[in-house]
Amino acid sequence: MSTPYAKLPAWADYGLIPLINLSVAFIVAGFVVMLVGENPFRAAVILVEGAFGKGTGIAFTLFYATTFIFTGLSVAVAAHCSLFNIGTEGQAYIGGLGIALVCLSFDSVLPWWVIFPIAIVAAAAFGALWGLIPAYLQAKRGSHIVITTIMFNFIAASTMVYLLVGALKPAGSQAPQTRNFLAGAELPKLNWVIELFGAKIRSAPLNICFLLALVMAFLVWLLIWRTRLGYEMRTYGHSPKAARYAGISETRIIITAMMISGALAGMMALNPVMGDQHNVAIDFVSGAGYVGIAVALMGRLHPVGIVLAAILFGMLYQGGAELAFEMPAISRDMIVIIQGLVILFAGALEHMFRPYIQALFASISPKSVGMQAVRGTGA
Amino acid sequence: MAQAAIELIGINKSFGAVRANRDINLEVARGTIHGIVGENGAGKSTLMSILYGFYQADSGEIRVGGKPVSIHTSNDAIALGIGMVHQHFMLVDNFTVLENVILGAESDALLKSSITKARSELDRLEREYGLEVDPDAVIEELPVGLQQRVEILKALYRGAEILILDEPTGVLTPAEADHLFRILKQLKDQGKTIVLITHKLREIMAITDTVSVMRQGTMVATRTTKETTVGELAELMVGRRVLLRVEKGQSEAGAVKLSVKNLTVKDQRGVTMVDNVSFDVRGGEIVGIAGVAGNGQSELLEAISGIRHAVSGEVMLDGKPIDLTGKADPGELRDRGLAHVPEDRHHVGLVLAFEENENSILGYHDDERYLKGPFLDVDAIMADAKDKIEKYDIRPANPRLKTANFSGGNQQKIVLAREMEQDPGVLIVGQPTRGVDVGAIEFIHKRLIAMRDQGKAVLVVSVELDEIRSLSDRILVMFAGRVVGERGPDATEGELGLLMAGVEHQEAAE
Q: Boundaries of each ABC transporter domain copy (chain B) (predicted)?
């Protein structure tokens, strides 16, 4: 006989539990703020106002969120195939190389709306190739994907440093970065959308990559839950033995999943490179790949959850910057601690409160936990 | 009556709206073997999990040796001298037998002394009860039958006075089961108390002193075994009479559909698991393979279905060979009309985390009926799943429900429905009714016979001798990787039992 399987209504599963986790993270963060002698409530107000209070803040929040949507989706696609892709960081970095090559070649001759699609393809292709090598090693040689992707992050970083202080650096420049792109490789801003709602924006990097990220989120949903490929990836992700039984090739599915994951990671580079900096500089990814892991886990590997989690992390980035500026006692490192607490409670300790919530629901309203469905009468 | 070892008084346990146990009273006398029977989902395992500290009862009282106790964890239970052998083994796969036995019972931080102590203690237990296992063997390399012995050794090592066994013979053959029963009787003679959970009535009759029957979460009756009959117990269990043996007509065997010649399969350690096996299966017949678990049946099935690499030999499907390199595409074999119901439905035949409808296309997911270009045709899949649910009486009739939430019998029906509805020419089935209750067994057997009557070739591997005898038109017996005999369906249990034990085989070899 099987153990009855308790579950929660969807709104509690996807809404209430993340909210509780988040609240606990902020309460603990509040104590940290108190420890350094600041008022946690005022800190919270500054954080939220910094992120959403003014038009500029909102634009920055969404700009950061765009980056995290890409990396979160990248991690999620691999995770559905039970591959833990730690290499999003490096794949995004190498994706930037693809964009640099396209932009440096064509920015003087083509308009942005021609360069953009080419750059998307280049970013995706470079990211995918950087995912392909660890995938091949996993599928054919059994080298663990976690180890190889971490190592590939270092290889990516070293390669980019080599190129950015060498071949890609304009002659005579002291900075380890490419020359600035011409107007042809600059993406249109989206700030006017926020201004439609009456907010004022001074200058903010929010650009059409945000829309691209939302489109990719929808496509990932389609891929995972509505295509044969997604079905095969999920089958392999849950049970490699069942996949073998079902005639799904292990090699093919691992390589395909990792290449899609790498492509999404590579596309992340479009946002800072073409949307904001207009050049490829050293270390432009700056940890967004690792944040993507937290975003994907917090979003429960579902695109809607990932978009929401990405906005939350965008808020922490933007609001955190404001906070460090407004409260001298709170340094940038403190912001990282707060972010870490969110990751800890919403990601790593995701299931900590679940049993209590389940017990609570079961005692209030047994039907809501769907127990009547569990009973298989007879057979 | 002897003093009660365990008393359960007014136990209630609900999971949400499901009342898994309601108002259960049970008294198990010291030094007896007490059977608890009931269908899957009757609440037997829940009750024992409460006794073993996995669940807390909502209300009620537990008394051990006459004293009220509270059992919050399995450690509490162990301290009270209660040991449990689970249906699904609780073993660390990549540990050795010895390491598993001392797990959680290590005497200090360094393992050396524990291991030395455990080794001599194991040695004694093994000799005393005939539970031979190599203490240095790694669990994942042992057949299921031996893994269960390790579970029993674990409980004995911890000094269990009361031993609970949850469906212990599900994975054993009659010979192994008899061996187990001898052990249980020996334990009883030494004053230990045994609670045996099962849905096999034959076992209850053979070994227990007292039997309690559960149905839908309630305890419907307790009888002295000597004074009851199989018929009465079966009726109490399901509330109606069940057909214990399925009626079937004469088989009309046609052309050879599946032909296995000189097949040899080795496992990952290089041990020969299938040794030069040859047989044919014709359309319109059911060939049953009987044998003690771990005598090569699983490897044979996997090789035929293209999942496992075979060292030599050939397998012909409708006269054409199949790829035995282990790289065969099971999808291609499906296209050629080979359907496979694997032994392990939890990890191979199903993805438990999937919705029911997703599992009803597993392996056939690249069939164009279920696709629109690269996309899944969700409407078609749903309609198809609903159709199968109705035809195979899968309950609850909800194709959106997670597969893990179906009972074992219904999970098996999901697999059978998927494989049978593809109208295959050859159907190979591993353990068709393992962990499935009486009502569903009858249904599954009837379906298999209907397949045969449609002229399909059916190959059934089962460790249930009753099942093999009831279903098969021809019975092959496997022992140590070889087919050691072929018998008709009228072969007696004793005759088959001897073959399964390798008796005739050894005589022939001498």
A: 6-241, 258-505
